[in-house]
Design brief:
Elements (H helix, E strand, L loop, with lengths): L9 H11 L6 H10 L14 H10 L4 H17 L12 H8 L4 E2 L9 E6 L10 H15 L3 H6 L1 E6 L5 H4 L4 H13 L5 E7 L3 H10 L5 H5 L1 E5 L2 H5 L22 H7 L18 H6 L3 H7 L13 H6 L8
Helix pairs in contact: 2-3, 2-4, 3-4, 5-6, 6-9
Length: 327
């Protein structure tokens, strides 16, 4: 075992060897091979290439050198192409702070039976008057940056549960193709985290419809790990034990405290509430969409008509039955 593996338990070391092809005897050579590829992308500013940083990309791609390098390049390219998103990229940034305090994201205290961190999102908590969807994405990315420092989570990964209870049609209409693309690129294509499962619960028909639209643009591996439970929490419990879930998910623990993770990141600044409104923030969702790269814009033209949800009027919203019953 090298010093780079010092934070891993014996069980996780074995898991890294069997599932990720991690070999302590060749670890430094593996890292150097990825580092040597940096010269092939002079258009990208690689701000970090230290051993510990590159290692998380190797783990995310099961030690396939080229795939790890491609992920590393996409990580920095995403940040170059969306510079405004990463200005004031810290927990005390007003927009990020408001999102964090509303539980975007939350993190459960207990790991699942595979050692994965369970992240939770309660979609209806989004207060559109106080922060943007871009703020939520920034808060999630910032949180992942903090969590991925843990080598155990680099190996074991994460599980995400999204509760769509009381998420309105009006809120859903803000999930534009450009915004969804920004999130997919940031989380699926450009971050070194292993997601073992993404669980939708209590999703209304319009979220199911939205997922149907974006599904073709997700990687096959991602699609296989998305579970639409609807109101059937028993199917969720077959994958995540109710003993470690809060009562909102039919679990045996008390209701989730939305500020738990925010207090971890913000510490003594959690209760310092500065005046903030969406209009005062110079990086609105609209601004970011305008600054999308040509590559992204080309992809967006084939995703979906921006008015796909808005064309459905209020009467249809109230009367239309779910596209598919998953209960």
């Amino acid at each position: 075992m090298t010093h780079l593996q010092a934070g891993l338990s014996p069980e996780t070391l074995e898991k890294a060897r069997l599932e990720l092809n991690e070999n302590p005897d060749t670890l430094h050579q593996d890292i150097q091979e990825v580092r040597d590829m940096v010269i092939t992308r002079p258009d990208i500013g690689f701000l970090r290439t230290d051993d510990a940083f590159i290692l998380r990309f190797l783990r995310a791609r099961k030690f396939h050198h080229f795939e790890a390098f491609r992920l590393l390049a996409q990580y920095f390219e995403y940040r170059q192409q969306n510079l405004d998103m990463f200005k004031s990229f810290k927990a005390t940034d007003p927009g990020i702070k408001q999102a964090l305090k509303d539980g975007f994201p939350g993190g459960l205290a207990n790991l699942d039976h595979y050692g994965r961190k369970i992240l939770v999102l309660f979609a209806a908590n989004w207060d559109q008057s106080r922060y943007t969807l871009v703020d939520i994405l920034r808060a999630i990315l910032l949180s992942l940056e903090a969590m991925i420092e843990d080598p155990e989570l680099q190996v074991n990964g994460f599980v995400l549960i999204i509760d769509w209870s009381n998420f309105t049609f009006k809120q859903a209409s803000k999930l534009t193709p450009s915004m969804l693309r920004l999130a997919i690129e940031g989380l699926q294509d450009s971050f070194p985290a292993r997601f073992g499962g993404i669980h939708f619960v209590n999703q209304p028909w319009y979220i199911h419809a939205l997922y149907t639209v974006i599904r073709p643009f997700l990687k096959e591996k991602t699609r296989k790990r998305i579970f639409l439970h609807g109101n059937n929490l028993n199917s969720l419990h077959q994958l995540i034990h109710p003993e470690i879930l809060p009562s909102e998910f039919g679990g045996m623990l008390p209701p989730y405290d939305m500020g738990t993770w925010a207090r971890t990141l913000l510490d003594h600044e959690y209760d310092d509430d500065s005046e903030y409104s969406v209009d005062s923030y110079n990086t609105s969702a609209k601004d970011v969409e305008k600054d999308l790269s040509p590559k992204s814009m080309k992809r967006s033209q084939s995703v979906v008509d921006p008015g796909v949800l808005k064309r459905i009027d209020k009467n249809e919203e109230e009367n239309m039955q779910p596209l598919l019953s998953l209960d």
